[in-house]
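I'd like us to work through together how a protein chain folds, taking it slowly. To get us started, please write out a protein record for me. Go ahead whenever you are ready, and we will take it from there:
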Amino acid sequence: MKVHCLQGRTASGFVTFGGVWEKGEVPAASFQLTAPDGKPLPLQSKPMAFWPDGSIKWSAHTTDAALMKEGAELLPTLKEQPDSGIQIIKGSDACTLDTGVLRLNVPLGETLRCDFLAQDISVSGRKAAHKVYPVFLLERRNETEDVLETRVQKFHGVIQKAVLEEVGPLQATIAFYGENTPGECCSMPFVIRLSVWKGSAEMRFVHTFLFDGVEQWDFLKGMGIRFETVLSSTAYTRHVQYLQEDKVFHECPQNLDSRFPHLGPEVRQAQLNGEISAANASEDMKQAAQDIPIWRQYHLVQDSDRHYAIFKATHTACCRIRAQEGARAPGVMALTGENGGVMAGIRDFWQKYPGGLAADALNQENAQLTLWFYSPLQEAYDFRHYDTKSHPMTCYEGFEDLRPSAYGIGVTSECRVQFTDSLPSEQQLRRFADRLQKPPVVVADPTYYHEKRAFGYWGLPHSETKAGEQLETALNRAFLFYQREVEARHWYGLFDYGDVMHTYDPVRHCWKYDIGGYAWQNTELVPTYWLWLYFLHTGREDVFSLAEAMSRHASEVDTYHFGPLKGLGSRHNVRHWGCSCKEPRIGMAGHHRFLFYLTGDARLGEVMEDVKDADVSMSQNPHSMEKRSDGVVVPSARSGPDWSSYVSNWMTHYERTLDETYRRKIETGIRDIAATPYGFASGPDYYYDPENGHLIYHGEIENTPNQHLQICMGGPQIWLETADLLEDDTLKTLLTRLGKFYYLPVEEKTRLTHGQIMNRPFSWPMFATAVSAFSAASTHDAELAKKTWAVLMESVPQNAGTDAFTPHSYVNGFAAEGPYQEIPGISTNWVSQWCLNALMCLEFIPDAMPQDGFIELKPPVSSNQ
């Protein structure tokens, strides 16, 4: 497997990447990574998924990206991995990690109650920090008609469990589980992962916040990770630096600017250069320092995606003054003294506002540096719904009952810290920021993934024909439109970044952000699958980045991680958790497998564990219950998107663990559907038994709105990959039959089913093109292949314009050049499915494309609305 760093990502720092293998190709998790000249590169490996025979399907590998060269090759080997390059000294409830440069003490155990993530941190023998711990601010509100009472409580998080999750020759990772608000009626749980690397003075934290409060009175006021640093000497030898867009904000907490005794500009310049120490300071400097104010606090807050400000204060009891401001901060600061210090930053800083970077207690030895994922300088985050009732008919919301629960949702943030022995230069700060914001991503070429059928079936470009070239242009335009919309519509914020909107409003020239089920997409009709398969199709970094953000968001904010809705997600709505429809399709593992297997992200593995038993949660959901003919109310499930989502969860858990319980559930459902009269065309509603996964057929449901839902939420993609994993062709046979059936005339459907399927609408024929393409390829049906391409392309003009995904510019309703663009009839449902189905048609029936082309691709024009 030849791999490379994605162009557009920083090729420095340690990186974890995934390898995919055919059944039987890799019997054990021993690998080597070689440079193009054959020299071995450092490597740490582990298995992530298996084939049923126990051979490895997906593996994870850690290496130093700075040593990667174009054409590096990953190969299975019989050699054992070397002993750990990171020393681990275990105690009864703690351990010491030593990377050779960085040494720290961390708690370790299943039943803990400690207040630090790490302590006694030293770098090359120098004490650098006393300890690191999570911090949290909870705002409680009591609001009446005339009075709003607020109370803010400050907490240091408590670690209850710490697990040494991974240790090897290059990387060690510890997972911490605990409570942000111990002793309160809500605990606001957290999961924090700390990673360190051999020979590195850098630490990476992945911080997950989980909400278990009551929306009406529990508000998020602040959360982050705090370092109590060790800074030697006096305040005038200390430095606070914030990286800005085009410069560095750099001050000393005590600025040597004095009228009497007089200290000239050369003193201040020498001070900023780091040339003044307590030992060489003049008597005038020392005398002036007795009376010059010390700015003990600095705080940069990114209050929107377009603005940040730096504040400072001399005391907590005094006002803050504004020091500087700008548009988009790179999210990096440094705090240093004579003995060195620390560079620190938050990834996706302005994209996931309101974050903050703060320095406090700058007059003390243990000055504090806090990485705020939610800055306390901002208004507290409000988890409440946008209305007190549901609007199912007018606004496309779920049901009449209102269930906008945030209980069990989460959000994940990432930060890095690098210790330094001197005042960092602007160049050093920018290199650190580049690695933080655009960390390395190592991948193979699309042809390799395609050959291995990574994530199932999708096609490579066929640009040698006019039709293939037009198709690539259309796919690219669709992606670029959404990439630009993220920026133009400001789809940013801690709980929003990564999602896109559902439906466009051409009258108001904006998306329907405030109209019930037309607002946030929440993975509906699997834009995740579209973006990830398009990345595999192209190998482009910009596609990877948009898909990565969506996966991170969807896996946390749109999914319930505990409580009665565990494993489910909320259907599209104004608030991500606002819809009364709690569905397995929103949180299913299929959305998250791509990023997990391509990068080895441990948090995503944890999320996929959260959803594996979503069928149990759904079977206790009142909206999934049906009354049998005998009057007994039992759980129900549609073959898609309910059962297909369960299969996604079970397949993922099975390949990761080879737990036969989940394989048997999949095979039980396959047999049940195969036993019906018409396969996937039957039902599509069933009674469901969560104990064993049985789908209990109870006849044909006429006029059901669910037939197209069966295949537009990832069903075909899930079933085909499952069929390959289990080597069970029954699923493929069922899909072949459905692909033949879907486009038949009503009269023919009626005849073939003896009148049992007569009036059922097989809506949205474009959604079925992947299934019909598979059927055409499997049965060598040239006419069906031709019809499939026609259905796919005939849907373009009415949904994406006659010029196919070409946006028209406007400003305040008038034609103009600028960032505001629109495709008036667009919806993310349609775009996601069109692109996903096109990518699968490219795999199954590329030769059936009309050779002369089929899309009129005009250049962009302006529209006068």
Summary: The radius of gyration is 29 Å. The longest helix spans residues 466-488. Confidence is low (pLDDT under 50) at residues 860-865.
